[in-house]
Every structure is written in C-alpha cells, then in structure tokens.
Amino acid sequence: MIKEPDTLMLIGFMGAGKTTVGQEIARQHHSHFLDLDREIEKKAGMTIPEIFKKEGEGAFRDLETQVLKNAQTFNGVVATGGGVVDRPENLAVLKDSPATLIYLHGNLESTIKRMLAEGQRPLLQERSVADFFALWRERDPKYAQVADFVVETVGKTPERIAAEIVALFSANEDDLAVTALRSQIDAFDRQLFEIIASRMDVVLAVAEYKKKVGMATVQPNRMAAMKKALKTDFKGTPHITDEMIDQIMEILLTTAIKRENQAIDEG
Ligand code: S3P
Questions:
Q1: If you measure from the C-alpha of residue 104 to the centroid of ligand 1, how many angstroms do you get, rounded to a whole number?
Q2: Which of 37, 62, 112 to mutate to test the pocket of ligand 1 (most atoms within 8 A of CB)?
Q3: Do the strands 76-79 and 32-35 form a parallel or antiparallel pair, or are they unpaired?
C-alpha cells in the first residue's frame, strides 16, 4: 500500500504538525514541499486571517478546493489545511487521490498546546473549547476514512515522525500493520517520559519544602503507603499487577530520592 510515492499528502487537524513534519520529510527524503495554506495565500494575495475577515470562510474554502485539486500530482510532500475534509467535494478528491495520504493523528491536549505556541488560526479565535472539541470529533473519522496510513504523533518530535513516515516506504505489506501499532506504542512511551519529567519537577518542589522545614528526604512510611494505594486503586485492572507496581514505583522513588538529595546538596 505504501510505496515510494510521487505525492505524499499529510492530513490532520490544525496544529497536528503537518507543515513542520512535511518540511522535515522533504529534507530527510530529498524531495520538494508544498503547503496548501501558503498556496491559498499566494492566490488570494492576502493572509488566511485576512481572507476569513474580508471574504469569509466560503471564499477561503473555494480556494482550498482549487489548490487541493492542483496538488494531486505534485512531485513531493504536500501539507493540507486541517479543514480540507470539511467539504464532500474535497473528500471525494482525497478518496480518488493518486497521492499517498498520511493522517497525522494527535490528541486534543497536544494540539491545543501546539496551537497556543504557534499563534492564532481564525477558526480558533471564534470558537469555544466545546466547539473545538465538536470539530475534532467531526473531522477525525473523515481523516481516518481517506488515509492510507495513520501515524501517531503525541509526544514525538517532528524529526521522529518524519523518520517513521520515511521508513514506511521500505516497509513491506506485512510490516505495515505492525508498524501502525508500533507508532502508537512509541507515542505512549514518549508520553510516559514526559510525565516522568513533570513528576520530577514536582519532586524538586517537595525537596525545597523539605529543606526549608528540615524534613528527611526518605519517608519509608509514605513510600509503602503510595505502593499500597496504587495496588488498591488498580486492583482488577487488566495488565497492571502488584509486581509491576512494585517495580515501577521502586524506579520512580529511588530516582526521585537521588534527585532530591542532589538538589538539597546543591543548595
Ligand atoms: C483550518 C486550518 C488551517 C487553515 C485555516 C482553516 C481548519 O490550516 O487552513 O485556518 O479549518 O482547520 P492548518 O491545519 O495548517 O492549521
């Protein structure tokens, strides 16, 4: 299904990283890159927020359909706009597309984080979080329906996502199903380490407090109580065993204590 394509098209919600990842794939794969939002701006001679403000969303969507049709045989990587699946006409173009379509799948939290860092989109300015969530739920099955392949992006750097996509070109048919599942596992691993890093930030705040009040770093009763509480809360949860809780908490607690002591010594 995935062959080294003439046209690779990235689809997904705004803030999924389509432009950044697309540029990175083009760099790693020595190919060209086309951003449909930029093409629309060139055609209109205005920025996207200006088009929305002066001409309205309908005019923007008309231009989007035109540039989407023109990009079907572009030789390289194409980043689409998040709303490209809104019009049935565009969905039909995507379904019949000669391009390989990759859905960059994220989650709401990572998407909002990214959009806040990047600056505003017209649709974000006008909508409440509830509207935004509704839009997400409406579009997600449409991206999935037309995609040849779904890549999980949460917690991954653009370089990593691009490398996963480039690796698809050399994967055989049997590998592809397992590759999609591994993409999800890799995303979970990255989220786990992000959480561990945030956990450590809190550990350091506790270290500061302990230092101030002269409390001992190691609190054996609390450590035992934490493990016990987790075992109670996760009793009956598939895959989570008492042994797993003991092992993982042991690693978290010993590394936290080491880091706390270091912080206290450093003053
Ligand atoms: C839109 C997403 C934007 C841009 C326009 C509308 C949308 O593209 O086309 O603001 O409807 O989701 P990105 O997905 O690149 O942000």
A1: 14
A2: 37
A3: parallel
Shortest-distance Cα residue to atom 6 of ligand 1: 83
Rounded to an integer, what distance in angstroms lies between the CA atom of residue 183 and that of residue 124?
Answer: 28
pLDDT in tens, 66-115: 999 999 999 999 999 999 999 999 999 999 999 999 999 998 888 887 77
And the tokens for 123?
């649709």
Closest CA to 40 of 26, 56, 51, 54: 51
pTM: 0.83
Give the atom of ligand 1 at the shortest distance from the alpha carbon of 37: 9
**Of 71, 117, 116, 79, nearest to 98 (Cα)?**
71
The 10s digit of each residue's pLDDT in 232-254 is 999 999 999 999 999 999 999 99
Residues in the chain: 267
> Which of 101, 194, 197 lies closest to 154 in space, CA to CA?
194
Instruction: Tell me the mean pLDDT in the region 164-189.
Output: 88
Give the distance (Å) from ligand 1 centre to CA of residue 118.
13
Amino acid at 123: L
Strand order in the sheet with 32-35: 32-35, 76-79, 7-11, 100-105, 149-152
